[in-house]
Write a structure and sequence with these properties.
alpha+beta, Alpha-Beta Plaits, Rossmann fold, 8-stranded mixed beta sheet, 5-stranded mixed beta sheet, 24 helices
């Protein structure tokens, strides 16, 4: 018997059934069957065809359908419910975006399971959608939507965020007074003016057609991950995948799709090994912005796919950011819009000096004033103020932290689905002695974007301040695994070393501090960790030398200023944090 061609991919799934089907069949079998056939012929089958879907299977009292895009699935669901308003049958519909496994005859997987559970939560005549679906369409549907919160659903390990689209009759009542209907808003404020990125299908270099699903899966997952960065517009799959199998000119692709950046790549599989390469190209200039290669042993192929996807998505976001910062530096200062000003502020921020921070603030403030709906400059201001307080560069650290918190709140008020908003809030809460709430904020940022490495680090900081050393280690090591060469690696290694110090594993704390100092020889936190670990290990001579190096860059470090840089929940933990410095000879 020939093996089935099993494919794994991201898809929008629509599950539907007839409410109270058993009761209806018992009361009037012939009438129910006739109404079901009429609904299929008049509304359901034509509607699915109109929105480019396909029915995967019928379930007796319902059906399962697949769509290429979330928008098509939701539009089909709402159109069907409107078309079925006069039917004697009432349908419940669930729509989910998730991974599915297609064996050629049926589709399976958590993406399908969640859609079926959402259908069960819907009211008769109503539609329930998952949080992932809502994130994609929330500004493109002119219908009443209720947030039903997180729900535990059968056979799904994590809670599912559920939103209910009101039945057609309620939507008509809710919108009857709104004339004319407003034009659909952009998914994120100011999107149209920002540089878009297109992800082309990855080339299958294996010479094995069976590996097409793996190459396509990598590209599709990267596209989905990139879309989670709310500031970065991503060209839809239906547009970028038309180039599959073609020799393309990147400049032409960029012009055709309206994309400033184009990602292309390849997958080569041999035996139990795979090599995935990717390169990001500036479509205007043809210059390479980023390129990397990933060699992996294929154990669980889905785990490898997830690992590579996270790594590439985490690398691309800052790569685009750096390219944009350099581009805006070359522009005429009189021609800068809010996006340009924010990128210039980011360039100064990335110098990571006291002077750079001072130069970044007015640029972020100008960007925020020009576009009050723009999250990024508010996050930039908050980040500057937090680090200024952390490194005691601020004249008034408590005031700096208070301003950071206000900026984080403002960013969340603008876009509660932006992972940066929740990530910077997590840092803010940690440094305002609210580390337990910071854990919640960091986890929400990770939920919104699993590739967001700074959110994983923020989670580590919150765990460390709570005294949960090994939870902190796990969170920071996740950030390092996703993005091992990140510009923030020295900061992450500082947190990791401090966490091992908290766990009384001073040898590991020392090794990590040394590793970080190879990348950033004068980074104060790493120098402090070095002196601390050496002091705890009783290597007094080396500890004194390390302390001198630390005090050279932080001459005013005292116990009082230390309390601004670390906010442990327990005083005993805080004193242990300083113990190694005191053993090294610190008199602060």
């Amino acid at each position: 018997m020939a093996e089935r061609n099993v494919q794994r991919r991201l898809a929008a799934i629509l599950a539907a059934d007839i409410a109270e089907y058993t009761r209806r069949m018992e009361a009037d079998t012939d009438g129910t069957v006739a109404a079901w056939h009429a609904a299929r012929a008049d509304v359901i089958d034509p509607g699915i065809a109109e929105f480019s879907g396909r029915i995967v299977k019928h379930t007796g009292d319902g059906f399962l359908a697949e769509f290429a895009t979330v928008q098509d699935a939701v539009n089909c669901a709402t159109a069907m419910q409107a078309g079925l308003a006069d039917s004697p049958l009432e349908f419940r519909i669930g729509v989910n975006l998730g991974d599915i496994i297609d064996d050629g005859e049926d589709i399976h997987g958590e993406g399908v399971n969640v859609a079926a559970r959402l259908e069960g939560l819907a009211e008769p005549g109503g539609i329930c959608i998952s949080g992932g679906v809502y994130d994609q369409v929330r500004n493109r549907i002119d219908m009443a939507v209720d947030d039903m919160g997180e729900r535990e659903v059968k056979h799904v390990s994590a809670p599912v965020r559920v939103y209910a689209i009101k039945p057609a009759s309620e939507n008509q009542a809710a919108t009857a007074s709104v004339q004319p209907a407003p034009a659909p808003a952009a998914p994120v404020p100011g999107f149209a003016d920002r540089p878009a990125i297109a992800v082309l299908p990855f080339a299958n270099m294996s010479g094995d057609p069976e590996q097409e699903y793996f190459a396509d899966g990598i590209a599709e997952d990267i596209l989905t991950r990139l879309a989670m960065w709310r500031w970065l517009p991503v060209i839809a799959r239906n547009s970028s995948f038309v180039y599959k199998g073609q020799a393309v000119d990147v400049k032409t692709v960029g012009a055709d799709l309206g994309a400033r950046y184009v990602l292309e790549g390849s997958v080569r599989k041999s035996g139990d090994r795979a090599r995935i390469t990717g390169q990001l190209i500036d479509a205007d200039t043809g210059h390479h912005v980023w390129a990397d290669r990933y060699d992996r042993v294929l154990g669980d192929i889905f785990d490898v796919q997830d690992e590579i996807t996270d790594a590439i998505a985490a690398a691309l976001e800052p790569a685009v950011g750096r390219a944009e910062m350099e581009r805006t530096r070359r522009k005429n200062p009189n021609d800068l819009d809010a996006w340009d000003l924010s990128q210039r502020g980011g360039w100064h921020f990335n110098q990571f000096t006291k002077e750079g921070f001072a130069a970044a603030i007015p640029l972020f403030e100008q960007a925020a004033a020009l576009d009050p709906t723009f999250v990024q400059p508010l996050v930039g201001i908050a980040a500057v103020r937090i680090i200024e307080a952390l490194l005691t560069w601020a004249d008034n650290p408590p005031a700096a932290l208070a301003e950071a918190h206000r900026m984080a709140e403002a960013a969340m008020a603008i876009d509660d689905l932006d992972p940066w908003s929740h990530g910077i809030m997590a840092y803010s809460l940690s440094y305002m002695d609210q580390s337990e709430n910071a854990v919640v904020a960091a986890r929400r940022a990770i939920e919104l974007n699993p590739s967001f490495t700074l959110a994983h680090h923020a989670l580590g900081v919150a765990h460390m301040f709570n005294g949960d050393a090994m939870d902190a280690v796990a969170a920071v090591e996740t950030a390092l695994r996703i993005s091992p060469n990140d510009m923030w690696t020295p900061m992450w290694l500082g947190t990791l070393s401090a966490s091992y110090n908290l766990a009384h594993d001073y040898k590991t704390a020392l090794e990590i501090a040394k590793r970080g100092l190879q990348k950033a020889p004068k980074y104060p936190i790493l120098l402090r960790c070095l002196a601390n670990a050496l002091g705890q290990l009783g290597r007094t001579g080396e500890a004194a030398e390390a302390l001198a190096r630390f005090l050279e860059v932080s001459p005013d470090y005292t116990e009082e200023t230390a309390r601004f840089s670390v906010h442990f929940k327990d005083e005993e933990v805080f004193q242990h944090y300083l113990e190694g410095l005191r053993k090294a000879g610190w008199q602060g």
